[in-house]
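Kindly review these tokens for lecture notes.

. . .
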Amino acid sequence: MEKISDHMTFQFKQQTLNLNNSTMLCGIVNVTPDSFSDGGKWFGKDEAIKHAKDLINQGCQMIDIGGESTRPGSTYVEIDDEIERILPVIKELKATTDVIISVDTWKSEVAKAAIEAGADIINDITGLLGDAKMAETIAQSDAGVIVMLNPVIARPNHPSAKIFPQFGAEGVFSDDELAAFSEMSVVDMMATYFDKSIAVAQSAHLPKERIMLDPGIGFGLTKRENYTLLKNLSLIHEWGYPCFLGVSRKRFIQNTLVDAGFDTDTETTAGFELRDQASVILTAIAALKGVEVVRVHSVREHYMAKTIADNVRHAEDLADTNFEAYQNK
């Protein structure tokens, strides 16, 4: 990727977001029976809408709606079924809230239906490579797009990738390109993959201002690779794009806590909360690094974390407030 610097803005639906001042939280609404963290909890229009509104009330400004799980071991959802799951939720949220709506799909037909129903952004976990019509579908609309590095596509034979479903993209990379990916560092893989994604976007005349990049944390990566990408998030900004980050409750977090001696049994309340607490720490780090959008399952704790980190990052802009002494009691 060519390294450039830009003022970070993101455009969709005749809106322009200035993303330089504060990290935005994107709440997750999985309208699925089998998502890795909350599968089945919001599987149904009424449950999904109520959950989305709860997340909005807690402070998120974006909702990411998904109708197909992409967890390890998940199965393909037919296009009509995926559309049927998400469209009622999109329409109701558009009619009753002003929240930004992204839709988590890699299928162009689902994306087209979602945009027509009111979705603002398509969150494509294949980085425009899983469906040959996706870039053109988005370009012909006024929606924005989140383009994700998908290591499962880049390294289909990697041990960390084999547990995931395949996401289309057959023939996008040649055998030589796939062989080269297997020899690259994870940072070089991200750069090379995004080169391909951006080239596809440019061929479809999809403007750069409508693109956000996601480093694909947790998708077919080793523990070291996940943390290496987190350490190098600034590269996305150097390439001139806003960063969208999804790390909430992912498996490498749980592994890290186990290695540190914590009991993270997700069948218990305490174990589940520990994974959320660690996720909140990563949100604070991301906000301190200037990540524009962080995708989260819960909002209240993440909102607190990103607020503190935003204040550290923009300390020079804060009011120079004096404080009274504590009262002795």
Summary: Residues 2-6 have pLDDT under 50 and may be disordered. Residues 269-288 form the longest helix (20 residues).
